[in-house]
Amino acid sequence: MKAVVIHEAGVPEVLKLESRPVPQPDAGQILIRVKAFGLNRSELFTRQGLSPVSSVRFPRILGIEAVGIVESAPDGEFEQGDIVATAMGGMGRAFDGGYAEYTCVPATQVQKLETDLPWEVLGAIPEMLQTAWGSLFKSLRLETGERLLIRGGTTSVGLAAAAIAKNQGAIVAATTRKTGHEKLLRNNGTDQVFIDNGQIADQVKEVFPCGVDKVLELIGTTTLLDSLQCTRSRGIVCMTGMVGDQWALQDFSPMDAIPTAVSLTTYSGGAEDFMRTPLQDLVQQIEKGTLRPQIGQVFELDQIVEAHRCMEENRAGGKIVILT
Fold first, then answer.
1. What pLDDT score was predicted for residue 54?
2. 52 cis-preceded (ω within 30 degrees of 0)
3. Kind and range of the H or E run holding 315
4. What single-letter DSSP state applies at residue 21?
5. Which of 149-153, 192-196, 220-224 has the lowest mean pLDDT?
6. Are the C-beta atoms of 224 and 204 separated by less than 8 Å?
């Protein structure tokens, strides 16, 4: 099979297209013929050498998600030809992941899908939707009628979260740095758009005088402190994203930074969270047009270097998908 292998950390060119044996599934595993997969910033960080050495060793086939067709299931959990999705659980880190024509994963992290959606759409959704769903309903515990602010609303996760939250009856606000993105946000379920200059708490309080109930923070530490100031008493801020490329807060003083009775949490879903995500229900929302995944660019497997460069330079305008 063709596979993208990384032997050392570095620039996009360290990703090498190689010929590798097709893996053979053991008991409890599923061999998937990969049809598509999305790119994720965690893979970018691994490629750059920023992942902990204890969690990933080279050489490695990267890729924390994949969609495709079941080739073999020794224990009979799935039928050959089933359309499936998989994500997390050590893919691309503890063991070889989705950047290949075949991948072998535990059956406990595979969901079967009944759908006619094209592979470029299916390839965009496993990690994106589990992140959006888990952030909203596991960490933020979002309820119908609550006021939600999505910081980083034009990210692929942000757009998905807006649509999912709107379909659940929330009042959705979202941020963007560009006025030209307002239509995109509103088309994906956003009721209120804030133009983000890094400090939007005053803007938010003009519309929501007591603050919002919940904040989904997708930019990261560069805006986290301001997001805390946007939140009402007994509200929750969930930090999920890290597109700001700053890992730590400098001179963090919790008593000053966190308003009284505002809760701060995080979300970084694993295989169990992926399996709890109602992926089939969300696929049906996509088929009905009430959930529209924002796909940026689609590449072939042998264009992986170009695709990673596109992700690193934030040029995609949505989720990057690779077709095998």
1. 64
2. no
3. none
4. P
5. 220-224
6. no
State pLDDT tens for residues 46-58: 999 887 766 788 9
Residue pair 196/227 in contact by the 8 Å Cβ criterion: no
Please give the C-alpha separations between residue 315 and each of 37, 65, 207, 273, in angstroms, as whole numbers: 18, 21, 32, 29
Q: How far apart are CA 222 and CA 151, in angstroms?
A: 11
The token pair at 36 is: 């598509």
pTM for the predicted model, two decimal places: 0.93
How confident is the model at residue 227, as a pLDDT? 97
Q: Phi first, then psi: what are they for 44, rounded to 5°?
A: -60, -45
pLDDT, averaged across the chain: 95
Token digits of residue 309:
């460069």
**Helical (H) or strand (E) element with 89:** none
What are the C-alpha distances in Å from 275 to residues 41, 100, 109, 158? 21, 22, 6, 21
Residue 314's pLDDT is 85
Answer yes or no: is pLDDT of 296 > 80: yes
Helices vs. strands in the chain: H and E counts, helices first: 11, 16
Which amino acid would we find at residue 11? V
Q: Position of tokens 């879903």?
A: 269
What is the DSSP secondary structure assignment for residue 22, as one 8-state letter? Answer: P
Nearest to 194 by CA among 178, 209, 210: 178
Give residue for tokens 């998937």: 32
